[in-house]
Design goal:
With 375 residues, the protein is an alpha/beta fold. The protein contains 13 helices and twelve strands.
Length: 375
């Protein structure tokens, strides 16, 4: 029973945290795109691509078709030593500036994406920089939505919304729910000025701010973190300069991982940057969430030696499901994924195991990314 009491205490504290995040999500105002909005700043869209022959054409077409003045933005794609038809496809679009990663004068052995983005910035003419990923697509109003949020505010860096493509496959739904939760936490963290969170698939920042914090200097040896680590640097230099673009027109879509091995590799890659974060507030939250799931996992496994605890464990899982349903419900409505909500309860045991397993591997493991083994 001592284990049940400890787990219950952690779950109670977790419930309070989720309630706080729910309030912050509600407080964040949803932005509506104004039809009369006219952009003033030239924008450079930068994409690092490696072995993306299956996705890059879709991305380029969605960027070219943006409902945005053609003389107000440019598309720069850095080919990170692709070994497939990625370069050929990029070069077939005259509207895109093709850059090869070999042009970099500051090659690194471990931080390939930062190196590629840094190279793209050297070619960029825009006062405003937006990064996205080669496997993403967006609606034609995306660029206007991002720039409207920037021009009507006073922020140096904006995190845009990202969602996984809709699916009826339970594995894809599992990924979608997990990712929506992260998006909700991102909004809460930025709204409350309690840290820096974002996703490089939809990120806007001033080129001047990037230069004034010396870009990726100091974090350029870390394999991941071209988004959150940079955001933390900008937040340190310009406190209160971060925000989330809570606008449906600004949503970027990407695909979930097709298999369990690729999913684990992706999440280990994401988790690996946590140990290198300088943002202590985010580190404490991540550590706490890990402990919540660890105690729940130990409690679940304790059924093997104490079968009589099953009733208490079921109650704890139901409580966790209700808490997370309450938190995710409005986020799912924002991303038009309300049909995913019942799976919150069904997938609870799997999610708990995944949270513990990936967090541990992220601290100690290598991962494979685009045919590279990275630490």
């Amino acid at each position: 029973m001592t284990l049940i009491i400890i787990t219950s205490a952690f779950l109670f504290a977790y419930s309070l945290l989720m309630l706080y995040y729910k309030i912050q999500w509600d407080v964040a105002e949803e932005v509506k795109l104004e039809k009369k909005f006219k952009p003033h700043f030239f924008t450079s869209i930068i994409v690092a691509a490696r072995n993306e022959e299956e996705n890059i054409e879709g991305l380029i077409k969605s960027l070219i078709e943006q409902d945005y003045p053609k003389n107000k933005f440019e598309i720069i794609i850095i080919d990170d030593h692709s070994e497939d038809r990625t370069a050929e496809i990029i070069k077939s679009f005259s509207q895109v500036k093709y850059v090869h990663a070999s042009e970099s004068d500051n090659p690194t052995s471990n931080s390939f994406k930062k190196q590629a983005i840094d190279l793209g910035l050297k070619h960029a003419k825009g006062d405003v920089i937006i990064t996205t990923d080669a496997d993403c697509v967006m609606c034609e109003r995306w660029l206007r939505a991002m720039l409207q949020s920037y021009e009507q505010g006073d922020k140096k860096m904006l995190a845009g919304p990202v969602a996984f493509t809709k699916s009826k496959n339970w594995f894809q739904i599992f990924q979608g729910l997990d990712f929506m939760s992260m998006q909700g936490i991102t909004v809460a963290v930025l709204e409350s000025n309690k840290g820096a969170m974002c996703n490089g698939a939809n990120l806007l920042y001033e080129q001047r701010a990037f230069k004034e914090v010396n870009g990726f200097e100091g974090i350029d040896k870390k394999a991941s973190g071209d988004d959150m680590m940079l955001m933390h640097k900008i937040e340190q230099e310009y406190p209160g300069s971060l925000a989330y673009v809570k606008c449906r027109d600004a949503i970027v879509l990407t695909n979930g991982m097709p298999s369990l091995p690729t999913f684990l590799q992706q999440r280990i890659r994401w988790a690996s940057k946590n140990k290198s974060l300088n943002d202590s507030k985010i580190k404490w939250v991540l550590a706490f969430v890990f402990l919540v799931n660890l105690t729940l996992l130990i409690t679940l496994l304790s059924i093997a030696v104490q079968p009589a605890l099953w009733f208490y464990i079921v109650i704890l899982l139901i409580i966790k499901g209700i808490v997370e349903y309450f938190f995710v419900k409005d986020i799912a409505l924002f991303f038009d994924r309300k049909e995913y909500l019942p799976y919150l309860f069904i997938l609870q045991p799997l999610h708990i195991f995944y949270m513990v397993f990936v967090a541990i591997l992220g601290l100690f493991s290598f991962y494979n990314w685009k045919g590279r083994r990275v630490q």
